Amino acid sequence: MNLKIFFTWWNRQTLGTFLKTLFFGKYVGRDEFGNKYYKSKQNERWVIYSNKIEATKITSDWFMWMHHTIDKIPNNNEKKYNWQKNHSENKTGTKDSYKPTKIKKGDKLRKYETWK
After folding, report:
1. What is the pLDDT of residues 81-104, one digit of tens each?
2. Do residues 14 and 3 lie in contact, with contact meaning Cβ atoms separated by under 8 Å?
3. Can you give the residue ranges of every domain in the chain?
4. DSSP E strands: which ranges in 1-116?
5. Residue 25 burial by CB count (10 A; 0-12/13-18/19+): exposed, middle or buried?
6. Is the pTM of this model over 0.85?
7. In the chain, is it the N or the C terminus that has fewer CB atoms within a 10 Å radius of its CB?
């Protein structure tokens, strides 16, 4: 095990989260991104991220479980409808963020202008 996870929160978990998971956490599942989900006897729920800590990496079904909206543990093998898109994290502030080039106003296309 790498010792830097004990001292730096940006490496998935802090020492406190590690100890809480070790002594009180019950593993309940993993999503398709490799994030691991735990709960305590008091039904407190938390996630250990697989890589970079980013809340938008939690899929909608696990998000509902984390916030006590549903009690059923999500299953990654459940059949999805063909109109459902795969989950993707928020790309705002990255090179992959959405940047419109033209917008349609009426019947004309015009160049996108930023706010001034």
Report:
1. 888 888 888 888 888 887 766 666
2. no
3. 3-86
4. 26-30, 36-39, 45-48, 102-105, 108-111
5. buried
6. no
7. C
